[in-house]
Amino acid sequence: MALKTFRFRSKIIALLVLLVLGAQAATFAVVQVVTERSVRAELEDRLRAAERIWQRFHEVRGTRVRDSVMLLADDFGFRAAVASGDEPTMLSALANQSVRLNADLGALLRPDGTLQSSLSTAAAEQQQAALAPLLDRARTDGSAVAVVALDDVLYQVALVPVMAPTLVGWVALGSRLNAQYTVVYRDLTGFDVSLARVEGERLRVYASSLDPQSAALLAQQTQLTRDLGALREVRLQSARAFVVTQQVTAAPLPVVAVLQGSLDTAMAPYAALKRRILVLSGLAALLALIVAVLLARSVSRPVGELAEAALRIEHGDYSRLPRMRGKDELARLGSAFARMQEGIAEREAKIVFQATHDALTGLPNRARAVEALESAIRRCQREGGGCAVVMLDLDRFKEINDTLGHAFGDRVLVEAARRLRDATLPGDLVARLGGDEFFVLLDNADPQRVRERAADVLAQLRRPLELPDTRIHLDASLGVALHPQHGADAQTLLRRADIALYEGKQQRSGVALYRDGSDEIHLRRLTLLADLPRAIERNQFDLHFQPKLELEHGRVVHAEALLRWTHPVLGAIGPDEFVPLAEHSGFIHAMTRHVLDRALLHNGLWREQDLDLGIAVNLSAMDLMDVDLVDFIDQALRRHAVPPGRLILELTESALMRDVDYAVRMLHRLRGVGVRLSIDDFGTGYSSLAQLKRLPVDELKIDKSFVMQLSEGSDDAVIVRSTIELGHNMGLSVIAEGVEDDRSLALLRRFNCDMVQGFLFSAPMPGEELLGWHARFVAAPREA
């Protein structure tokens, strides 16, 4: 009985043990299946999340490239250089922006898409072919960002138009998509990425975070070229991995990004768990059963929590971390997952911050500033009120960089940013648009106080800047545009604030408020700047001549050459408008040489017809900086057979006073050729007698502002008489311009003025008409 009882007990025990062992085995099998399924689901979710992060990563980089190219295309100096065909300035600006962006490709296309300039050594045909798809898209969308291949290298390239104000070209900048680019993404997400081109049923890998052998095996996975976006499990050597293929660009350059996550790596944390379950299976039946139940619960709960967390990450929700308890492997896995989630959220936030903020000053960048301005405009339209846009540019910042170095210039920019923040109210926004240009959005701004607030900002910047190794004085120019008075959208306000800034710099007024009509003036200036260099070759320039009369004998002795420009669209353009533009653009040298050559040509023709007149030509202040001008004048005199003494060069008094020492040296060189020298507009340049006696000049020309209203006993009469006596005492001839009535002429004769010029005798006329006018003047002379 006892034996039967023992056997029965044994059977019961054996049955229970076998049942528990079977349950343990079943539990182990279930845990194995559930774990692998959960890990697969988790890996799929993470890979999908990594796919979204890749899209954002790639788009943010493309946006930064495009914003940098748009910044270059919006730069006034660069647009002017492109419009005028200034090759060195274009290449310099393109190279500087490439260095700032760390770009590897830079090119400038003509409006028709042909290559004009490039920083690449690749053949022009290859570059044009690579950029052609971008150009087609940019012509439709206004700009384009895409991946192109050049010399077996992938580049992420942005292409934007250069407007001045019409299309004058296209500018492109691009960064190389190399292994370093993929490694940055792997460090960010933990997933490998490979950039490849679909070639039939194969992949051609350009860049990858994988080792070369794994990358070569990946290229042989022909199924990856089909059903882009599908999740697949592949085997590379003995390793299992999940991959998803995402299209980066379509035809004609089908580039894909292959994202890869290792399944074996994801399953590795569970190996220790399996061994512990096997050990626990050998314990007592009841203990094994209890442990199995607890273990099942401890496994299923954290895996579910991790799956839910992965689902939240898939939808971009990083706010709630997975709740994991305990200290076992699953808890450590959950903690690692939570840290990974925090890391992804932090890195994504960092990427977003870098995309919207300036790295040097920490201020919002242009994209963030435009976004804030648009938001403020919407609020104003919804709630009423207004806002103001202030564009600010530091004066002489290039001199600071060139003299004290770029590191010092960066410290100046950081200090300027700090002062701007201190000078604004909490609701205002300060941003750095690039270079030494800043932006201030004055929200809820009272139009009556905008000038005062802008002046306060300028006063803060003008305080002496004390740095450890030096002390400098900052200055700036501010342009202000108001909403809604000056514009209803962000781009209009920014453009008009920039126009006001330019006018403020020109007038040295510190703070300049946008004036109605300045848009048209700005566009007109850009048009004239673009067309001015081509005016000579298109025969748009004409020379007119105004005679000068000698009072003593009443005869014509000189004629002044005056340049006239007839624009095919804008009509007649006055010298007061196009000469400063020529000086600003550097075209003044070519224009002056054209005038000299044509004036001497006419003089030679007059001499052939027995009309021997001196010819007067105006020189700009910039012409004194032309070291080759003296040689050109000497050659032109010989070419047209004009005696040097018959050429009179007129320079304004203000131009000579800019740098008296240099002017004296240059005038001596010109005097050495044998030409005569005249000080034009005398009385307006504040020169002293000490300076005047140093100048080797032959004539003084009294400014017409003193002559046109000349009357007996007036202040103008005193000035004119004193100037004539001064000139004669210094041995100089004196000419009065602007003579328009007989009363002025009589006073000038009484004051013993040497020569006169003005509409009383003749308006400026073409050179062909001067001969006939002179013949009529000689035949019927008037009292002079």
From TrEMBL:
<feature type="domain" description="HAMP">
    <location>
        <begin position="297"/>
        <end position="349"/>
    </location>
</feature>
<dbReference type="GO" id="GO:0003824">
    <property type="term" value="F:catalytic activity"/>
</dbReference>
<dbReference type="InterPro" id="IPR052155">
    <property type="entry name" value="Biofilm_reg_signaling"/>
</dbReference>
<feature type="signal peptide">
    <location>
        <begin position="1"/>
        <end position="25"/>
    </location>
</feature>
<dbReference type="InterPro" id="IPR001633">
    <property type="entry name" value="EAL_dom"/>
</dbReference>
<dbReference type="Pfam" id="PF00672">
    <property type="entry name" value="HAMP"/>
</dbReference>
<keyword id="KW-0472">Membrane</keyword>
<keyword id="KW-1133">Transmembrane helix</keyword>
<dbReference type="GO" id="GO:0016020">
    <property type="term" value="C:membrane"/>
</dbReference>
<dbReference type="GO" id="GO:0007165">
    <property type="term" value="P:signal transduction"/>
</dbReference>
<feature type="domain" description="EAL">
    <location>
        <begin position="525"/>
        <end position="778"/>
    </location>
</feature>
<dbReference type="Pfam" id="PF14827">
    <property type="entry name" value="dCache_3"/>
</dbReference>
<feature type="transmembrane region" description="Helical">
    <location>
        <begin position="153"/>
        <end position="173"/>
    </location>
</feature>
<keyword id="KW-0732">Signal</keyword>
<dbReference type="Pfam" id="PF00990">
    <property type="entry name" value="GGDEF"/>
</dbReference>
<dbReference type="InterPro" id="IPR029150">
    <property type="entry name" value="dCache_3"/>
</dbReference>
<dbReference type="Pfam" id="PF00563">
    <property type="entry name" value="EAL"/>
</dbReference>
<feature type="transmembrane region" description="Helical">
    <location>
        <begin position="277"/>
        <end position="296"/>
    </location>
</feature>
<keyword id="KW-0812">Transmembrane</keyword>
<dbReference type="InterPro" id="IPR029787">
    <property type="entry name" value="Nucleotide_cyclase"/>
</dbReference>
<dbReference type="InterPro" id="IPR043128">
    <property type="entry name" value="Rev_trsase/Diguanyl_cyclase"/>
</dbReference>
<dbReference type="InterPro" id="IPR003660">
    <property type="entry name" value="HAMP_dom"/>
</dbReference>
<dbReference type="InterPro" id="IPR035919">
    <property type="entry name" value="EAL_sf"/>
</dbReference>
<feature type="domain" description="GGDEF">
    <location>
        <begin position="385"/>
        <end position="516"/>
    </location>
</feature>
<dbReference type="InterPro" id="IPR000160">
    <property type="entry name" value="GGDEF_dom"/>
</dbReference>
<protein>
    <submittedName>
        <fullName>Diguanylate cyclase (GGDEF)-like protein</fullName>
    </submittedName>
</protein>
